[in-house]
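Dear Dr. H.,

I hope your travels went smoothly. While you were away I took the liberty of generating a structure for the chain from your last submission, since the lab meeting agenda had it listed for discussion. I wanted you to have the full record in hand beforehand rather than looking at slides cold. The sequence, exactly as received, is reproduced here:
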Amino acid sequence: MNIQHLGTLQQVEDFLHGSAAFEPLPAQAGERYRWIGETLTRFDYARLGKPEKGLLGACLMRWTGYSRQQLTRPIGRWRATGHLRWERRPVAGFPIRYTPADVRFLAEVDELHDTPSGAVVKKLCERAFECFGDTRYRRLARISVSHLYKLRQCQPYRAQRRGFDKTRPVNRPIGIRRKPDPQGRPGFIRIDTVHQGDQDGRKGLYHINAIDEVTQFEVVASVERISEQFLIPVLEELLAAFPFTLLGFHADNGSEYINRRVAALLEKLRIELTQSRSRHCNDNALAECKNGAVVRKFLGYVHIPQRFAGQVNAFNREHLNPYVNYHRPCYFAQTVTDAKGKQRKRYRYEDMRTPYEKLKSLPAAASYLKPGVSFPALDAHAYALSDHEAAKRLQNARTQLFETILGRRKAS
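The corresponding predicted structure, in token form, is as follows:
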């Protein structure tokens, strides 16, 4: 059915209930207005009853794509004049009250008086005009304080006078800004987020990498997104995976960790939340180092879609984390102080060991374990496989994981 040839209200009602197809109206507003006027005239809209007007108005909205509010004005114009025509009226805009010269005089006043408050500048302009007869400030003497601040933001003002502010540190009342001081005790973890690449505008999944500062015991978990809905459950699982009691939780200034939900979770577990200080890039250096040495080394840089977060997290839990903590040796630095008091880090071969061996070598190591966790049980898990066997299982599981990810990604 061609909507431009509807002749009765019954046909209009049939069309409205979806009983017929129709040809869409032209996209130009002028053609639509002309057709609306012809339709109102053909059906004698002014003589119709209220139900019939509502029926015709509903069809006009469907045919034109206009809302009810958009149709009110053309219908009212047709009823007043008997015809309807699209008229484009250019907007002249608001008259300019303050000229570029006024902006230049304002910049000169700010330059002379070191940018005082807006009220002080207005008073200075009043005194310049009323007390000293300087007619250049005639309009600025009557300016409002709020509009004076608007003139300071305009381009002519900024082109003449620029101000530079010192970088202000972000101040959040959550956490403590300081570097953790474990004093040889395990349980002070560093945490950071690693993003697994973008592709065609789609975000990849995220890895949460947590490392104990003293033992380098590491737990990696993966989430779809770093919003609270996905992060909090995985964060609880990650904290429970450490065999020793956690005392500190250090992160950079990312909002995924410095927020009230994470702070409440850590407060419940009696874990102190600290965050990196401004201009101290080494505060979270251990986590940054492990991001490249572990996460990027074993999971790479290729884009992994978010829907595979569960499979990647299972791989981390069953293969990657046990291998890194029980079978992969790490260097442990020794701090040496010379005669001048300068401290240097020394990485000796004799001090290389796995994170689990480092944990067992600590004085009174059993006292740091969580309730219900013992070294005999951990030994059974640590020495069930040799280092080579654990590495072989890790490589096979990683190959299967990426075959699944890449195969499904190409299929989709």
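Two observations you may find useful: The longest strand covers residues 188-195. The two ends are 40 Å apart (CA to CA).

With kind regards,
E. W.
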